[in-house]
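Q: Entry one of two.
A:
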Amino acid sequence: QDEETQHSLECIQANQIFPRKQLIREDENLQVPFIELHGESTEYVGRAEDAIIALSNYRLHIKFKESVVNVPLQLIESVECRDIFQLHLTCKDCKVIRCQFSTFEQCQDWLKRLNNAIRPPSKIEDLFSFAYHAWCMEVYASEKEQHGDLCRPGEHVTSRFKNEVERMGFDMNNAWRISNINEKYKLCGSYPQEIIVPAWITDKELESVASFRSWKRIPAVVYRHQSNGAVISRCGQPEVSWWGWRNADDEHLVQSVAKACASDSRSNSNRLMNGNCSRDFSNGGDLSDVEFDSSISNASGAESLAIQPQKLLILDARSYAAAVANRAKGGGCECPEYYPNCEVVFMGMANIHSIRKSFQSLRLLCTQMPDPGNWLSALESTKWLQHLSVLLKSALLVVHAVDRDQRPVLVHCSDGWDRTPQIVALAKLLLDPYYRTTEGFQVLVETEWLDFGHKFADRCGHGENSDDLNERCPVFLQWLDCVHQLQRQFPCSFEFNEAFLVKLVQHTYSCLFGTFLCNNAKERGEKHTQERTCSVWSLLRAANKAFKNLLYSSQSESVLYPVCHVRNLMLWSAVYLPCSSPSTPADDTCAPYPVPGSSPDDQPLGRLPKTRSFDNLTTACDSSVPTTNRRSSDPSLNEKWQEHRRSLELSSLGNPGDDPFDGDSLSKQGRALVGAELSVAAGVAEGQMENILQEATKDDVGLEEHLRGSLETVGKGDEIALDREKRTENLHG
């Protein structure tokens, strides 16, 4: 009864709290040039030079004669007037949009409207995700069950913590325990309510440790290697300060993590010998003879393991100089003398200010007239790929320690909510095939990024009164870029494709969904975002074939060891370069609810076809079949299709209006403003970056050997890919 009452109230709120605004037309003959989403209300429709421009409470839509610009308002970072009649829009995902007007007054009017529209909200309910959900509730009130599945996370999501504890095989009887010390976030506002700690550590000790760690972010265990019992923990920096403070409980907790690993490993070996192992190993299959023999041999030294636990690795994401400098602000790093049986390593990762500066340099490079002779050196000067390389190396160090050396690892940076989740989430992705499935990736993002308090509202700039530009930084985007690099090196290891990641980038900022609102789980609970907004995972669910990787094999490598050198990394053209995105950021057909009066096959006015996956690759590669709906970076295509794609790209350089790409369409008018520079940028950048990978593959024998080794498990499809790669090398050589 209470549930039905609440449902009725939500339906009433849609009309009263989110009323539609009156449409203002510059010309009475103008019509809204797109199909509105539920709760979307178009406020202005006018004319630009050779275009129709419309502004709603969700998007900016510019319809040119043969193309459109369709961008969510929260994806726009800044708007400025250039050359008197031109608006220059800079987006948070690296795109730049230009729009020309006939008069100065027109340009100024739209400048004011857009600056008002993209301003951070004074209250969170001003974000479109709340209006969207409320109107969806009203429209689909009669379809309660279906609506519940789409708008609210399922039971498997809400219970993900306990599921993960069971899946990873923690010994909750002797080695570990779940502490509820943070129930109702009374200890730490940016931590989850339940955390895993060594079994013998009391809550009183945890309170003492919290007083010594930055923002009370105490060491918490987040991953256990299912074969050897080594764990990954994360925390904030110790507050050593210039006075050199130390905390006996903190030192005891860190050492206890290593001891609990030894105890867990011993009990795991005993369970194996007694035949009571009920959990899955590696790829989820039966325990192999090799794993069993290894477990037996480890069990023989169980007592010595318990007495002499493995040396714990403390991985500090910062440089040593930065860590010491933090002592001036009350922070610092662990002193090895006070943490026996621990090794401290500094990775030298840049802070958010350096990453923001690097990203701005990358955005400038990707949107200006390219100089083919100096483009690669200009890309190098942005340092973006170098930052990715350091992040990958940091995660790989964690993987090597946990998987090969069987050592526990503790990761932290300064506060523990930027570089720390980058390293930990990437390491878990490399270690565990489960996180490379669509469901597992959702669990990974929600646990390491959302539950442990990455400040999405501040970093993305869509929080309440989040005007401080120094707090903004594409931290999550940088991590997704690393995931994309892994997809390219291991094309058969991920259940989801590149379009999945691109869509996740776009909806990190779009505010169509409530998944990435607020700075931590406590704030999301106080704002009731789970009950009042839709989840992005309703769009990116495993059943959505548009995001499925056709090359995925569940029998691919259990643990991934990528090549991290800069020369092996690729610029993510689908996100950073114009005219190369595999899907649109605001595709109505990608919303969790269909638009009234439309069918899934209908294309909205002025919209290019969305990305889809071919069921028949042979047909897909036939040059007689229309191919404009395939993205250029799709690894699912064979050599014949790649040759056909190159011919399409070359032809598109002569006529930008005929570009065969999916995604954010830069207008023909916009292209005319900058000549052919955008098309040339896409062609030169993508082509030369492909050459980088080819040259790096020739230089790096280790990568080729790794690829050849993976062929034995993934089958004939990869053999074809490697043959094609070798033929390409010979051609360029």
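Q: Entry two of two.
A:
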Amino acid sequence: MKVAVAGCCHGALDKLYETLELLRRRHGVQPDLLLCCGDFQAVRNEADLRCMAVPAKYRHMQTFYRYYSGEKKAPVLTVFIGGNHEASNHLQELPYGGWVAPNIYYLGYAGVVRFRGVRIGGISGIFKSHDYRKGHFECPPYNHQTIRSAYHVRNIEVFKLKQLKRPMDIFMSHDWPRSIYHYGNKKQLLKIKSFFRQEVESNTLGSPAASELLQHLKPTYWFSAHLHVKFAAFMQHETNSKEELPKATKFLALDKCLPHRDFLQIIDVEHDPNAGDSLEYDAEWIAVLKATNSLVNVTQSSWNMPEKNGLHAKWDYSATEEAMKEVLEELNHNLTIPCNFTLTAACYDPSKPQKNMEPVHTINPQTTEFCAQFGLTDINDRIQQAKEEGSGRGEYAEEEEEEEMDSTGSAEEPSEYNTDNSGLSSINPDEIMLDEEGGDEDLSTCSVDPSPDHPPEFSTSFSDIRIMPDSMAVSSDDAMDSNNEELEKSGVSKQGEEKRSTERPLKRISGDENGNSGIKKIKRRNQAVYAAEDEDK
């Protein structure tokens, strides 16, 4: 089956689906599934905009609300993960995943589903070491700190995914797995994004948690976004025993939203021709969720996952055959995910703007139903209970105040990872693209209509992406030089056409807590960029 994979679409769903329609008309290619690797921006109304960790001047509605309201319907089944530019209050309603609109499914903080026999997993957010060992304690209305920490990856999600034993076909993360750049054309990457050099050379670019998952899951494909550059790599995994068959992962990072040609990729994936066309639960993943339910934490206290170190009575939470059989019996052997999308917030009305709409903490009926079905803890219900109990004792306000004061997490115990560099700790001047002419222009300027004279370049297979030979465990710079011509043909280095010699990382300068001042702008060819106070940018 044909799978379309998109990078950061930043809410421009109309343009995304129009591009797929153009692909069908011009090339006869019609994807069966669309995957989006974060920064999806499922913004329903003005309150959702207030929950996006970007300066207020860059908060624009885009077009998701049309699909949420029912005005439009996604023409292809769409599955996505969260990034670091999201309406966190909306996605937080669905910690275990669920429908954000008809035919558009969110995988949750972490999740695994099946479609036509293809196993698809993902983890939302980006890595920050100072929040990694905390529970999911945030809830709207967010403060200056929690609006960011809400989308930071937590160790419990990584722990759950590491309990999986069965093969994974496709996996998605927003930020890149750390070290993956050593398995592709590193020189070309640094030519396009020269400001990555220090982190690449010190091996601190990317998420160590995602790297850990890559080593454990060994999926056939791994897709990422976040850094706004197309990059392909091929990683040959080590085998744990002589009996184990060699495994390899084809990695692909996608560029940002349209009009960039490298923001979308079409691949051919082997599937089960006898499987149905419905999105399905994964029995092993559900069994893992049930097994790890007792580990759910909704406090901001740091804690470690169980390990085989003599300190924990139990450390293996992987699914047994009996546990998976129980899941199947609970579902009457029908793994189809119910189409139970429900409106939980007022939808944006362009004729009646409500700029003062405040976000509220919502319990989503989909999550309630899911937790009741499998005997799981509703994280948002637990958060509300903790908040009410804490407010009654006057503790919640005190915790919130301490949280704002300790924005760096310096009072915590040392992280198991020795750095705090997530996918992009240095400023990436390409993370948000704006129209060159204006500082307050709508972000939709990054998603212009496809030009009939310059249709986007697509690939109907993975064969046009440069793949390293199996014998090369880590590619050297010298080895990559001789292949630049091939890369030009593959489209991986298209972005290298722009001259980068004059680029300089933006320096942080002081500003107010909302990011409305202290922003330094520079103009480059066809784009202006900004760097906000937030270290996640």
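A: Comment on entry two: The two ends are 35 Å apart (CA to CA). The chain has one domain: 2-391.
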